[in-house]
Design brief:
globular; mainly beta; 1 helix; single chain; about 15% helix; 8-stranded antiparallel barrel
């Protein structure tokens, strides 16, 4: 009886400890200044472009920097011609949300990225917006 009770206790404690180590709050990815890789796809997951993102400023939840395309699979996707290599944005740390404007120099015809901070990077969506509203969108992912 004591052997069975010890075994059950051991299993319960082991399961509890394993549960603690796989917590969603476990740090695995930290977003800050530095270089990252990004991938853009359409809403069905077909690759559109990939590149590098350089976050040069991160101050009081405001970010800015530059990005370059390293491979473009389709240069005809809506908004591609508006993306000029500079970005600005905001980080909402408590809600783990990052918002980026891929062309902050103009008020119209922009591609915006809205992503959630996850254990393996940032992931979410992009959308192309013009004066009349949102025209198209897809998926975006940023990793270290």
């Amino acid at each position: 009886m004591t052997k069975v009770l010890c075994t059950i206790t051991y299993l319960a404690v082991s399961i509890w400890l394993l549960g603690c180590t796989s917590s969603e709050n476990e740090p695995g990815f930290t977003f800050g200044t530095g270089k990252y890789k990004f991938n853009m796809s359409d809403s069905s997951g077909t690759k559109l472009a990939e590149g590098t993102l350089n976050v040069s400023t991160y101050d009081k939840n405001k970010i800015s920097g530059t990005y370059t395309f390293t491979k473009v699979y389709n240069d005809k996707f809506p908004g591609y011609s508006s993306m000029d290599g500079a970005f600005g944005g905001d980080v909402n740390s408590p809600d783990k949300i990052v918002f980026m404007n891929t062309n902050p120099r103009i008020a119209d015809s922009n591609v915006f990225w809205k992503m959630r901070i996850r254990k393996d990077g940032l992931s979410g969506g992009w959308y192309y917006s013009v004066f009349r509203g949102q025209l198209a969108g897809g998926l975006v992912k940023i990793t270290k």
